[in-house]
Design brief:
By secondary structure, the protein is mainly α. The protein has one domain (5-122, 130-263). It contains nine helices and no strands.
């Protein structure tokens, strides 16, 4: 398969911008100077994950340029995993010198992804998945992840709504609402549930979405674990249970990604 060189160059530009923005966030104290400590350590953790994502994007771009379907699936996942945090940076980090870079990363990632998907005949990818045998195990895993995170977020949001109080995570972050809960409950967790159903029914779209969502899990999980370590280094309470749970999710997502990619032609 072939992706337009324009989209590959644009995604390479995205990777460069991400490296600049994340490195600046990590090493220039003024970037997060107006954030609460809780929100700052989460930003630090995400910056680390973003650097990993940028490196992965460079590698994926190279192999996509060679016509690799496997790399194309990873490429989609990395772009999705970059759109997610940079929407949060753009809306929920105080205005700073990187603001337009955040906006550029969101826009370039989204339109690169959209443009490439519009130009591809997805049915032409059907032969690439003819030998895939891991559809249902992956579907079950994605469903479990979606249900667990839905339970975690709703167990905080619903009691707060019933009591008229502000959720603790919102208070600690100093934000008006939780952007993570908005994006997860509104977009990403439903996408995992839908993909799980498609995989159970062995639909082509389910196969195409599985790897990107597993890549999303991996990169998002790295950010959460890194944030926990950053919190510990700043003397904030960090949950060992959260670290272990997310670490397991990352490892299982990575393992399933490798197993599926081995079967993709």
């Amino acid at each position: 398969m072939r992706i337009s060189k324009s989209f590959l160059w644009l995604s390479g530009l995205v990777a460069c911008l991400v490296l600049i923005a994340s490195s600046t966030g990590l090493f220039l104290k003024s970037i997060y100077a107006r954030e609460t400590m809780s929100w700052t350590v989460q930003a630090y953790g995400q910056d680390i994950a973003n650097i990993v994502a940028a490196v992965a994007l460079f590698i994926a771009v190279y192999f996509v340029s060679k016509g690799s379907v496997k790399a194309f699936l990873v490429w989609i996942g990395v772009l999705i995993a970059l759109i997610y945090p940079y929407i949060i940076y753009a809306f929920d980090i105080h205005f700073n010198s990187l603001f337009l870079m955040y906006v550029a990363i969101v826009g370039l990632s989204f339109y690169t992804l959209l443009g490439s998907m519009i130009r591809i005949n997805l049915n032409s990818l059907q032969p690439s998945f003819s030998a895939t045998t891991k559809a249902r195990p992956v579907g079950v895993f994605l469903l479990l992840v979606a249900l667990l995170f839905s339970f975690l977020w709703l167990s905080e949001d619903i009691p707060a709504l019933l009591t008229g109080k502000i959720p603790q995570s919102v208070t600690e972050s100093g934000l008006l609402t939780s952007p993570v809960h908005v994006l997860d409950l509104g977009l990403y967790l439903p996408a995992m549930i839908i993909t799980a159903i498609l995989l159970w029914r062995r639909k082509l779209l389910g196969y195409i979405l599985a790897i990107p969502l597993l890549v999303f899990n991996i990169l998002t999980g790295i950010g959460i674990v890194a944030a926990q370590f950053a919190a510990s280094s700043k003397g904030l309470a960090a949950s060992l249970g959260v670290e272990l749970f997310i670490a397991v999710m990352v490892v299982v997502s990575l393992l399933l990604s490798v197993l599926i990619l081995r079967e993709v032609k």
